[in-house]
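Q&A log
Question type: sequence-to-structure
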Amino acid sequence: MVIILVGGQWGDEGKGKVIDYLAAKADMVIRSQGGNNAGHTVITEDGEFKFQLIPSGILYPRCTCIIGNGVVVDPIVLLREISQLRERGIEPKNLLVSERAHMVMRYHPLFDQLEEEARGDDRLGTTWRGIGPAYADKIRRIGFRIGDLQKEGFMRKKLAFVVGQVKNPILTKLYGGEAYDWESMLEEYLGYAKQLDPYIKDTFPIIQDALDRNANILLEGAQATMLDLDFGTYPYVTSSNPTAGGALTGSGIPPTKIDLTLGVFKAYTTRVGSGPFPSELPTDQGVGRHLASVGNEFGTVTGRPRRIGWFDAPVGRYAVRLNGVGCAALMRMDILDEQPNLKICTAYDFRGERHNHPIANISHYKHCEPVYEEMPGWETSIGSAKCWEDLPQRCRDYVERIGELIGTPIELVGTGPRRDQFVTRGRKLFD
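Response status: OK
Response body:
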């Protein structure tokens, strides 16, 4: 069985926990897009693990974990993650990196920062990790792939051209910076090559073999639908396609092999960085402040405070239809435990017109007013619930209503941060 897991909002929905839950029965987990600008958190009996590049299934030794061709990999960050796992007694022998995956080079974060600063008040809110410039170089066909680390002569020739003839003139003449020494950069990356060589593989035949034997495969999405380069709130988006279609191209799996797309949603809405957010609440007072505090709403990678809002059903409905979501997980329900009243944004009002999905025109979307439906809260802790019937009736009503509004059944409910704090509705996602 092959399952695609996608974020249904602006990220930070709790995908890491769902991936960890599904990985227990998965034979393979594939990270298919993004870079170290995304973070997934898993909390186990051994403590908290934060992953930026390594698939969250790495905690299960029998599960093959692949960093797919659609990911941009910063070798410095990857080696640091491997080292951190070893420090905690985990040897990632089950990790593979596609030789087709592109690299974030030493100069990419600098260009990311310089370009963002040049935007002034129109900054996009990037993480300065160099992800956008790495994807841009991939499209321009001047990028470096992980497999290139195994070809010293090729690296030497290409670095001389890309750094010496393309990057340095821009850096020195446009930004007034100092030129890079491509020869020292070559030595640096050859050092990474020696350390990463055991993990670098042509993953295509490995994945195809897994498909042929009907293995349980999980495609781990990073970021989320509303950050998609084509269908998100452009230009306030990421530099890849974190939708179901992107998972296919980023892994090399054909659409005919997909059995289910699972959407992950947070019980309320958050986003990091700039861009429209119709159901946003102020975080310096009232409900917004409470949810931000109780939910510890800070970015896994950047530490930046997240913006907070009520659940946005038009966004959820849009994500379900765009990704072909067959069922969903509703996470962080416990953060709403103390709320006496809850609101759900069911539509938008723009100059007297109703809209039930995000508007492509961002200037208009920024000025949409949310149309709310109110429901009573359950005002009790749900952290000890073991099954659907253990949840308070008002909690179940809230879950059911969200499923109705977004157009897909909610099969998983997150009731707390721990690995075992899940309520399932009975559907077996992996046999």
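Response note: The radius of gyration is 22 Å.
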